[in-house]
Specification:
Elements (H helix, E strand, L loop, with lengths): L1 E8 L8 H20 L4 E7 L3 H4 L5 H14 L4 E7 L4 H5 L1 H6 L4 E6 L6 E3 H14 L12 E5 L19 E7 L1 H8 L5 H30 L2 E6 L12 H6 L11 H14 L18 H8 L5 H7 L6 E8 L4 H17 L4 E8 L37 E3 L7
Length: 404
């Protein structure tokens, strides 16, 4: 297990406050050292701001993004999330492809839903347009790795691109790459109960160690520690594959019947562990970041529809999904609408990071040369343009069936 990211939530001010970023950089470097001294590898230091449209005016978007990126990088932050576009500000969606094109280290997102449990059909379409416009910006549609559509996602989730800040007081949280814990716990387990107990024990042990360091840092620097996102993120090798972990429970292959039950079992196990939570804390199934998922997708066993189904019991939604390059805005709109409805009806955060690959068709092999991706095949998207009322421009409520 390792820490994928120490994510610092910082309001950079505008005009930019170099002092704020310098303090954040000092804290982040000391935090990295403290967690590594405790025995954990820290992959990256990242910074997330409030939604950019909240503290910038449109004429400053491009200049401010460049300035923030440059100064954040100088303070040791490899990546910066500039937060989501806002449903009441259409121009905040329209600028994102241009901002993605100007940088390889900035991440963005866009809300599909409002804080009033509403789906905004204009925002759903705007996110679909961002995804389509971003696809040709980089080889193999890679710019869409840095954009996600957000449904019902609150602030302080430390995983990118979903991360964003709220307010001005700084905070930090940990995004964990811990799929290997599930593989270890489930491999050779004598029963479901013993598999569950072993995973809970491993999570609890690591959580206690990580929280102790986090709370000491919070006290020393007077920066709020938001907690851990134990979403068990994978890495593209079998020992760190959530697909492999699920198959160790007895699935012949993830994507076949029984997969939903396995996914529910794993997420229920995570829910039973006790630790300070922020973010998703669910089952993350990013197809291109997981060797087993990528393999099952290439075999035609695992589909977009399957992954959306599993999001009903777990997960972060649809993540790193390779799609045909000619996927239309209307097709993307339809699947994003399903995701948004699911998130509100089940009262859970979900995201979509879809990657149309120019020149590729369903069934074509992907050709990524990226250490964090496992190659697969392009998945078909079973969607057609929506017409009538669902194709309109309303904003409408979807209330949770079981309100908290």
């Amino acid at each position: 297990m390792r820490i994928r990211s120490i994510t610092c939530f910082i309001h950079p001010r505008w005009p930019l406050s170099e002092l704020v970023l310098q303090k954040a950089g000092i804290f982040a470097q000391h935090a990295k050292q403290a967690f590594e001294t405790a025995g954990y590898t820290v992959q990256t230091l990242r910074m997330a701001t409030p939604p950019f449209a909240e503290f910038l005016v449109p004429e400053d978007y491009a200049h401010a993004a460049t300035r923030i990126e440059v100064f954040a990088h100088s303070e040791g932050f490899e990546y910066v999330a500039m937060g989501p576009a806002l449903t009441h500000l259409p121009e905040s969606y329209e600028i994102i492809p241009d901002l993605l094109a100007s940088s390889g280290n900035l991440f963005f997102s866009g809300h599909l839903t409002t804080q009033q449990s509403q789906i905004s059909l204009p925002a759903v379409r705007a996110c679909a347009e961002v995804i389509q416009r971003a696809a040709p910006l980089e080889k193999d549609g890679f710019a869409n790795l840095r954009f996600a559509a957000l449904a019902n996602v609150p602030p302080y989730a430390p995983f990118f691109p979903a991360a964003y800040h709220q307010g001005k007081a700084p905070a930090f949280a940990l995004a964990l790459e811990a799929a290997d814990l599930a593989v270890s716990a489930f491999t050779g387990a004598e029963s479901l109960e013993s598999a569950r107990t072993e995973l809970i024990n491993q999570i609890t042990t690591h959580a206690q160690a990580l929280e102790a360091v986090g709370e000491r840092l919070a006290h020393a620097y007077q920066i709020e520690f938001k907690g851990l996102d134990f979403t068990l993120a994978p890495f593209p090798e079998p020992a760190k594959s959530l697909g492999n972990a699920l198959e160790q429970l007895g699935l012949p292959a993830i994507g076949l019947s029984g997969s939903l039950a396995a996914a529910a079992f794993l997420t229920d196990t995570l829910d039973r562990a006790s630790f300070k939570r922020t973010g998703f804390n669910g089952l993350m199934l990013p197809l291109l970041e997981d060797a087993t998922l990528a393999k099952r997708g290439a075999q035609g066993i695992l589909t977009v529809t399957d992954l959306l189904l599993y999001a009903t019991v777990c997960g972060t939604g649809l993540d790193t999904i390779p799609l045909p390059g000619d996927t239309s805005v209307e097709q993307i709109h339809a699947v994003l609408l399903d995701l948004a409805a699911l998130s509100l009806r089940l009262n859970k955060p979900l995201t979509a990071r879809l990657m149309p690959i120019p020149g590729k068709q369903a069934g074509d092999e992907t050709g990524f040369e990226f250490e964090f991706f496992a190659n697969s095949k392009v998945l078909a998207l079973p969607a057609e343009p929506l017409t009538g009322l669902l194709g309109g421009d309303e904003t409408f409520n979807i209330f949770s069936r079981h309100k908290p």
